[in-house]
Amino acid sequence: MLDDSSAVRVSFLGRGEVYVGDELLRFPYQKARVLFFAVAEEGRWDRRVLCERIWGDSSAVSMRNMRNALSVLRRILPSGFIKSDRTWVEIARGAPIESDIDDLDESSLDASSVSRFAEQFLSDPALDCQWVEERREYYRRKIRRMIERKMSTAPMHEKNFWRAWIQGDSGGGVEEEARELPFVRAAERDAILDFLGVEDGTARAAAASCVVICGEEGSGKSTLAEEICRAADSGWAVCFRGKASGEGSGPGDLLNGVLDGVLESCDTKNTPLPIMYKKYLDETFQFRSEKNVDLNPHLLGRIFAYMLDIYHGLFRGKIMLVLEDAHWAGRWIPYFLKGLFENLSYPDTVVLTCYPEFTTRLDASLQTLEPGLRRMETRLTRLSPEQIGEICGAALPRSWLTPDKLAEIYEHTGGNCFLLHEFLNCYDSNDWSSKLDRSVSDIAESRMLSLSEDESHLLDCVAAFPDEAPFEPLKDLSGFGDNELVSLCERLRLKGLLYERPSGDTYVVMFRYALVKKRVCGAMSGLKWWNLHKRLLEYYRTHSENTRGRKHLALVAHHAGDAMTELEARVEDLKSHFEFNHELFPKLSDAELFGTSRTLNDTFLTGDYLSEAWGILDSLTRERGMTPALLECERTLLSIKGGYLRWNGDYDDAASYLEEAMSMARRSRFRDEAMAEVLEQYCYIGIQKDDAELLRESVYKFYRLVRKRRWRRLMGTGLRFLAVLRIMEGDYDRAGRLLSMSAGVFEELEAKGHGYTISVIAAVHYHGDIAMHLGRYGEAVSCYNQCVRMCEAKGFYRGICLHLAKAAWCETRLGLMREAREHLAAAAPFLEGFQSRRGAGICGGEIIFGLAALFDMWDGMPRSSCANLRNAEDLSGIMHKPLWNAILLCIKALLRDSGEPSLLKMLPLDAGAYLAEAERILRRVGLSHELGAFESLREYRGSGV
Fold first, then answer.
1. Nearest alpha-carbon partner for 838 in 650, 695, 658, 628
2. To bridge 18 with a disulfide, which of 25, 152, 774, 937 should be the other Cys (CB 3.0-4.6 Å)?
3. Following DSSP, what letter does each residue of 908-936 receive, concatenated?
4. What residues have CB less than 8 Å from 312, skipping those under 6 apart?
């Protein structure tokens, strides 16, 4: 019998064990163990969120399973240790609990204590829960960063000791005889520190600074950045670092390290970070695993600036963000930096390393921020022969290191810092005189190491993968057995070429340096490169369940020279991309959405993707003629193109593309599927244009077709389309019943599997529209607020601006100006500096920007009012949504009526003209009573409130 007063000791690191007193706690099954560790880590969890994290959803079955697991924990833990109610699951207040992560402190980490934290992970078994593995990976990364920072500041004779821990060995010993290599970029370092105003441990710069260190691979960018950090850490600033790992890296890979450092120092649980920001960071980074999460980089910059402001209150000094190899994160980083620098309250510094060609993109993004932003660019060239001699002389003080030998080393390393250092690290034998010639040759041919034939073959195979190489496909491609492959990976890991990390239920293998992969690819013959991709393509075809393979299928097919497979893969990718990025209420399950985009979307790449696919189609058509398979691809592309044009308000061109797609769909081998695809886009055109006649022409055909085929998700969507038609026709009772039926279809699907939160939100939203059409504004606000709460609970922010926009408009009609302003403030993070012409997150933006312009005018801020009006007109000109445009016209009449000179320049017509156009639109869409908004809002302002 357990003593109820016994302390509970939790080991999160390593195997993960729990002791009550001196007794090891044994859990009867895995999910109960996972549940305990989740509550022990956080202390308190929302019951529904916790259920979704561990059991995948919050269905009745999953909630029952969690209740059973809680009963088990109450039985095996001391009485009253875990408490729960309908909302929360938590550790009881004052319960005696200790955990090893409480002691995870970098300041106390040294050579004698490192094994306590790191050694346990060397043989760490995986748990059957993806979320738990993600949390354990978080702690692995944290420990690794601690050790990496120890290595970066350790003297040369200790570096191998810390490097061995990073590479997974149980300690590497200390080389007492190793000598410190000289730092040869001192001139560049001093110039940067002088630019930053660093003198005697202080900083004189009054403005934010951005330092760009550019150079080719291996030119010493990271080493120079490290020196800058070392100077900052001496007391001038606090430094947070992040690095992109190579081709295929996203912005999350680069910013994750920086974010983790900030979060470790800035406890967001106890700071006033807005709930939307917390949820966004949580979904984007901490639980992202292999998810293809869409990021809004400008918003991320705002969030980082907000967090740094909080941290300034704790530190009272400068902060430096170091973003290494930013070129791998591509177009995201300029947007991120723009959002960051526009919102910084303190003169912080960003140090960024990248390839030279990346600086053009940065310049275009940051030049508008001057003079408030100070910028400096340092371009690193190859080392000189004198610098090569200085480094080699310090590392290899041998009499035989003649000028000829140094010249030979210079020739084969090309003055590249990385290649030179690797040469010195790998060839530390005393017998240099007999090995130098062969060693230098190896640098050029096998990346400074003498590799066996099997090792070279494995490197070629790993290089064939677009990013990391999962174990099973790598085994198939290389032809090695399990044990042989593991042994080879281990040898190459110890040589510093490869490393591995857990990913789900397997491991993936990656190059430690992007430069190594580039050199391996460059040395491979064209025939082998083609053959490897041909075989990899065949593997992914055979193992169609491999999601990673589907993600990279088009690229692998391209390298394999299989244009038809590449085209088909691109078309499938486009279909998914369009559904995720160009539908406000997509017919997708929560599980599908959790793996992709939940916030602002990236829509401006769709046109490029379409052009690329059409280019391949045209090339194949010229080569082979129009085959049935190519006809299917063309029909799908026509349908997607029509939907894309519809999404951006180009309705006439959209209709012409869809008409051609429908003609081909009637002759398609997959006639019903193809016609449903096109009819759905026709329905969306009718909805976006508020055109009942156009919607009526398509919606009945669409619903009859999907009901005949019993496609449940499409039936739910079709019922919602029918409800929207009834709203347009003024038949609100039938519309309400149809919306309830639509929600019922998706709730029925949820009972059988995954939830469909977005589709249920859509039904609630249109119930709000019915109330607004009837003038019941309070009821409408309640519906829209319910949609907002559902979005926030799930972390699905697509469409949230539309709910906020309509709620704010209805509240202005009720005179609830404070509540309306609160809704506008909630929408601000999504709308300020939106990076695409239109995204699923900014629907309704013309209403929000219009109301913001109105409130700014009332508050005596004409410049801000003009800026918001300009944004509203930009979005209105894209979407051409009649209802939203009519509301904006009413707001324009109010702004014109104010007589503010700066607004009069933007509004050439008089207030009556704007109202007349608004009346024409509102009568057509059945909302003529909204014309009363002009008088009621003018009277509101006239009251002097």
1. 650
2. 25
3. -S-HHHHHHHHHHHHHHTT-GGGGHHHHH
4. 319, 345, 346
Q: In what order do the strands lie in the sheet with 88-91?
A: 44-46, 88-91, 82-84
The mean pLDDT value for 163-181 works out to 52
Encode pLDDT of 462-501 as tens digits.
Answer: 999 987 889 999 999 999 998 899 989 888 877 767 888 7
The conformation of residue 108, written as its DSSP 8-state character, comes to G
| Helix or strand run (H / E) with residue 203 | strand 202-203
DSSP-derived pairing of the beta strands 8-11 and 97-99: parallel
| Cα dihedral: 896, 900, 906, 910 (round 10) | 30
Q: Hey, what are 665's tokens?
A: 């769909």
Per residue in 242-294, pLDDT (tens digit) is: 777 555 445 555 666 566 666 555 554 555 555 556 555 554 444 343 334 44
Query: Taking CA 611 as the corner, what is the angle to CA 608 and CA 613, rounded to the nearest 5 degrees?
Result: 110
Q: Mean pLDDT across the stretch 355-361?
A: 81
Q: State which amino acid sits at residue 631.
A: L
Q: Is 453 helix (H, G, I), strand (E, B) or coil?
A: helix
124 secondary structure, DSSP code: P
User: Dihedral of CA 569/575/576/577: which sign?
Assistant: positive
CA distances from 737 to 717, 741, 781, 798 (A): 14, 6, 20, 25
What's the CA gap between 764 and 743, in Å, rounded?
A: 8
**Could you tell me the pLDDT band of residue 786, with boundaries at 50, 70 and 90?**
very high
Alpha-carbon distance of 875 to 879, in angstroms, equals 6
Return d(Cα 339, Cα 932) in angstroms, integer: 39
CA-based nearest residue to 469, from 527, 552, 545, 529: 552
pTM: predicted TM-score of the whole model, two decimal places: 0.64
Q: Which of 346, 339, 325, 397 is nearest to 368 (CA)?
A: 339
3-class secondary structure, 327: helix
- Phi and psi torsions of 128, nearest 5°: -85, 60
Q: b or e along 882-910 (b: 16 or more beta carbons within 10 Å of the residue's beta carbon)?
A: bbbbbbbbbbbbbbbbbebeebeebbeee
* Alpha carbon distance 221, 231 (integer Å): 16
What is the biggest distance separating any 2 CA atoms in the chain, rounded to whole angstroms?
96
Torsion sign over Cα 875, 877, 880, 885: positive
Q: Which DSSP symbol is given to 106?
A: G
Which of the four pLDDT bands, split at 50, 70 and 90, describes residue 409?
confident
Between the CA atoms of 600, 602, 607 and 611, what dihedral angle is there, to the nearest 10 degrees? Answer: -150
Q: Which of 624, 483, 634, 461 is closest to 556 using CA atoms?
A: 461
Cα(940)–Cα(817) distance, integer angstroms: 10
Instruction: Give the C-alpha separation, 475 to 129, whole Å.
Output: 25
pLDDT tens digits along 53-65: 788 777 888 888 8
Q: What is the Cα–Cα distance from 286 to 289, expressed in whole angstroms?
A: 8
Mean pLDDT of the chain: 78
3-state secondary structure of 250: coil
**Structure token pair of residue 754:** 């995954």
Q: Tokens at residue 858, please?
A: 């009332």
Task: Give the model's pLDDT for residue 270.
Answer: 54
8-state DSSP, 285: I
DSSP 8-state code for residue 155 = -
Rounded distance between C-alpha atoms, residue 48 and residue 827, angstroms? 25
Least confident of 157-171, 219-233, 533-547, 761-775: 157-171
Of the candidates 410, 354, 414, which has an alpha carbon nearest to the alpha carbon of residue 221?
A: 354
| Both structure tokens of 664 | 């081909």
51/38 Cα distance (integer angstroms) = 11
Q: Is 175 exposed, middle or buried (0-12, 13-18, 19+ CB in 10 A)?
A: middle
Residue-wise pLDDT for 490-506, tens only, equals: 888 777 678 887 776 78
